[in-house]
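Appendix C reproduces, verbatim, an entry submitted by the partner laboratory led by Prof. M.T., so that reviewers can inspect both the input and the predicted structure.
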Amino acid sequence: MHIKLKKFIKILPFFICLGGFITIGILFFIHRNLPIQYKSIAYKENDELLENPYCGFYELHGFLLSENSSSYAGNWAKQISEEMSGQLILLQINLKNYSNVPLSDYALNQLDTLLASFSQSGKQMILRFLYDWDGKGLETEPDSLETIKQHMTQTSNIVNKYTDHVFLLQGIYTGNYGEMNQTSYGSEEDITELMNHLASVTDPSICLSVRTPAHLRTILKTRSPYSGETEYAGTLYSRLGLYNDGMLGSVSDLGTYDNTPFANENDYTEKGTREEELEFQNHLCQYVPNGGEVVIDNEYNDLYHAISDLSTMHVSYLNKEHDLAVINKWKDTIYREQNIFYGHTGYEYIQAHLGYRYVLTNSSIQFHPALDDTATLHLAIENTGFSPAYRRFETSLHLTNTDTGKEILVDTDIDNRKIGGGDQCVFTVPLNIRDLASGTYSLSLSMKDPYTKRSIQFANQGQDNTIVMVGTLTIP
């Protein structure tokens, strides 16, 4: 008896500890199985003008390359940047001084200085290289196709250094005003050869564009550019968009379209009617950019007609000063649709919707207790703008403990490019609840452009538009 009692006394602490662990385990089990609560917030769109990269009204400026020093180019670019009110610039680079010779070191240094200056000032650039500003392209463009290709190679060696701020290139260097018309190099063979060469020497992240849908079909040899092709792959198919400097100028957009329907499905050079070409752009420009300038006051650029067509064409950028007759008509017209923009001018409405405009519209959490306390956050993001964004942004979820202020950053695989103009997408973000300490967490969302390092603004009402509140998560 005595021996057994001694043994029991020796092992008594073990049982006490074991009982304690069991008790703690039971309490932990009960605690972790108390209801986890999630509460979303109210989501509404605001009527603010956002300042996001790669879209909006642009300023047009032109520079003639010459044998002047690079400091001349630098001073010019600095002055332009200081005077600009926006961040988007269409920079036309005139090469006519070198029509039949290679670009000199002076010319290339000027180009380098220009792009460096605008990059440093945070501008996003649309570039158009050309030989003519006076409607006399036949007199100033090179005598040889090979010279144009040489110029493409030389300029691309500079352009490729500034992919963070060069968004797209317009045209293939030819035609009056660089618009691919009235040129010695307008044949199917020439435009295809020039565009293929330009694509081969420019960085795949830079978008390219041609003047008309017929030009694009001629080069790609297809009526359906994304039939069997991969979007955003860096190929010519996935990079080639449109620019239209006759936009809304007439039923044909000043010859951009035709007045007769498509007749031969194998003839890629033919133009369709306005209705056919708008439908083509409606599909195409969910993946590649479209922009230009509106011209000539007429019924096709009356406000509601303009809004409809700009939305269908997924236009992301327009010239802010041309045509002023049209721009001023929009400024003098009041938007009367019954939504948050009621009472704004037509110009303000169009300005707010050029490009992409993200609104977080809904969120919910689906819990998976059988899968080690994991959960899935569902986020609905609407794009009320005319077009998608054509570059992928970095999207992060922030979980902030409201008691301690400690923040946990969750990277997501959200691809914002998939949110088409006028569309909404639901994305999922996995969450490991087990890794979170007890407490209440504020959930918010942010996007950042990895190229310009700019935060992407959302159009959610009553919030800091660069970090959008999603909801609150309470873990007992």
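The chain has two domains: 35-46+357-475, 56-353. Additional entries are available on request from the coordinating office.
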